[in-house]
Fold:
Amino acid sequence: GMATNMPPHNVGEVVDGIIHTIENPDVPIKDLMKFVKGPDFPTAGIICGREGIKEAYMTGRGKLTLRAKAVIERQKGNKDTIVVTEIPYQVNKANLITTIAELVQDKKVEGVTDIRDESDKEGVRMVIELRRDVEPQIVLNYLYKHTQLETTFGIINLALVNNSPRILNLKQLMVHFIDHRRIVI
Structure:
């Protein structure tokens, strides 16, 4: 069996890259990467490092580490909270909250007093309240390691080219797309 796993991208960046490829057919991949800077995930989150993006665009395969966007906020009475406002792509928020609650219940993570989902139409907002005597950064790092607050996304740019599966780099994807559009038009 074969599988493809292409991440979503910003359509404006991709169109700019395609236009540049049409105007400069010999464009190197590095130049295309000035237009298509990286995947654009709908749940936002943070891509840790650029090496996985570079590898995927050069070879057609790469691995990205995605992290939730979390900030530590100081509350009244010297209590800290961890506020998560963006989660990694394809992570179910309800399952994530359940996993964190199970870690707290099993006493694998110490110092968490409450977990609330305050998400609304404005966006994601998970609040993790901590006791006064715990270091919030240690709790956050533990949650990154043991929950889906940090995940990996394996990129495989596999596409059918002349009815044959091929793994394509960024430029090859664009060239084949341009050829396809010429046929369609």
About this structure: Residues 38 and 53 are 6 Å apart (CA to CA). The chain has six helices and nine strands. The two ends are 33 Å apart (CA to CA). The helical segments are 11-23, 29-32, 51-59, 93-105, 136-146, 170-184.
